[in-house]
Specification:
This protein is of the alpha/beta class. Helices cover 46% and strands 13% of the residues. It has helices at 15-27, 92-119, 141-161, 179-182, 186-191, 197-211, 218-230, 242-253, 256-268, and strands at residues 6-9, 30-35, 51-56, 71-76, 123-128, 166-171, 237-238.
Length: 272
């Protein structure tokens, strides 16, 4: 893909979104780094030698959408997380909040962007999901369900938008050094319930052994993401860190039941 026109990144106040906005600007795009509170992006434009401006956009409020006429890249990164609880103890209001932002927000922004992307084709929609959707991970059900929904959305969009020259890229991050990763409440939530405590202990141990040592900086992940955006011949799904790459390789080589058995067994061994 030739670098020209504008790129919009949602959820660009921090973490992966912020890093991707900077990387796109460094590569030559006119970047609109969007966030609910533009004050959170103060100084962001000064971190790149490229062209970047900060704008307010709340994915749940279409009245805040102001997309550039020369839009060629949309990165749907904005998302929220919640306490990682067993489904038995889940708060349905939390589930609704996650789906409203993580799924319907993506749909809403993408709907608004498609006519502009079509007018400036070739163009790209890049949706950030999660490598956790590839594995049977306990207590992450609400967050994983929203990301799996976006993954399914990607497949439908690929078919619908292909005739218009709009490519759809899915990014499945693993452990990237973001606020969301660092303040994950997954371990503490599971420990609160006696029935699930052994499983929570096993999950915490696995995270310390596998995920924590493989954390990558956001800018390193962002470089991989922008490479995928620009590569017209790249696969439709990408990791952006070593753990996600390994999960993707395993997923591609396995059927669903084998993948479930391999990943779930690590947690089921700790069951009551």
């Amino acid at each position: 893909m030739e670098v020209s026109g504008s790129a919009v990144v949602t959820g660009a106040s921090r973490g992966i979104g912020r890093a991707v906005a900077l990387e796109l600007a460094d590569r030559g795009f006119e970047v609109v780094a969007t966030m609910r509170d533009p004050a959170a992006g103060e100084g962001l434009a000064g971190e790149t030698g490229g062209n970047l401006r900060v704008a307010r956009l709340d994915v749940r409020d279409p009245a805040t959408y102001d997309l550039p006429d020369d839009l060629r890249v949309l990165v749907n990164n904005a998302g929220v997380d919640s306490e990682y609880l067993p489904v038995e103890h889940a708060d349905l209001d939390d589930w609704r909040n996650l789906f409203e932002t993580n799924v319907l927000g993506v749909v809403s922004v993408t709907k608004a962007a498609i006519p502009l992307l079509r007018a400036n084709r070739p163009a790209v929609v890049c949706n950030v999901t999660s490598s956790s959707i590839l594995a049977a991970v306990p207590f992450y059900s609400a967050y994983r369900a929203t990301k799996a929904a976006v993954s399914a959305l990607c497949d439908s969009l690929r078919v619908e938008l292909a005739p218009d020259g709009i490519r759809v890229v899915e990014i499945l991050p693993g452990p990237v050094d973001t606020d969301m990763f660092r303040v994950s409440q997954g371990e503490a939530a599971g420990f609160r319930f006696d029935r699930y405590r052994p499983m929570a202990e096993r999950a915490a141990g696995l995270r310390r052994q596998s995920a924590d040592p493989m954390v990558v900086p956001p800018r390193q992940a962002a470089a991989r993401i922008v490479d995928a955006v620009l590569d017209d011949g790249a696969p439709m799904r990408h990791g952006c860190d070593p753990l996600a790459d390994g999960m993707m390789d395993l997923w591609r080589q396995s059927d669903d039941e084998t993948m479930f058995t391999m990943t779930a067994s690590a947690f089921l061994d700790a069951g009551p």
